[in-house]
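Weekly structure sync, notes
Attendees: PL (lead), two postdocs, one rotation student
Agenda item 3: pending single-chain targets
PL asked that the sequence for the first pending target be pasted directly into the notes so everyone works from the same version. It is reproduced below exactly as submitted, 175 residues in total.
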Amino acid sequence: MQPTSRSFYRRLGIAALILVVTVVGISVVAAQNLPFADGRINQIAFFGGDALYCVDAQYLVSPNLPDSDNGGGFRLLSKTGQALWYIPGVDVTKASEKVAGAAVLVGSWQGSYGPAALYVNKKIDGSIFFIFTGFDDHSKPNSFIFASCEPQGSPSNPSVPTAVPTPIVIRNPIT
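Predicted structure, written out during the meeting:
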């Protein structure tokens, strides 16, 4: 009976070890998917804690790009949750319709550490994308490009560019 009892406890110990390793592994992978799980678009591009969101008409985080039909908008919050600015979907639609070869300013306001702006442009295939610019808490300018409300620049979405290395040419800004 001794070998059977030892064999049982050995198998039980191995099963428990596998379970612990699996749980820890899943936890580590889940924690790495998004640095911030609050729905912000800018996951890695740092703006001193400022966070850009797509929101619906009730200011709740939305997976939909704002336009004049859905009543949502873009909202920038400080690291403490203070609303810094809001761009209504109707302004996003107006700016998107004016894009003709160069980025169009959707809106610009004050972020926590300096001016922040949102531009819209079109790819060759006609699909739109946005460029958000601002400053971090060390007065360093930063920007990132996004084409959807999906969190950008996260380890789970590495193919999305998170920085614009060259200056942006801006013509025909709207106010």
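Discussion points:
- The mean pLDDT is 78.
- DSSP finds two helices and seven strands in the chain.
Action: rotation student to compare against the earlier draft before next sync.
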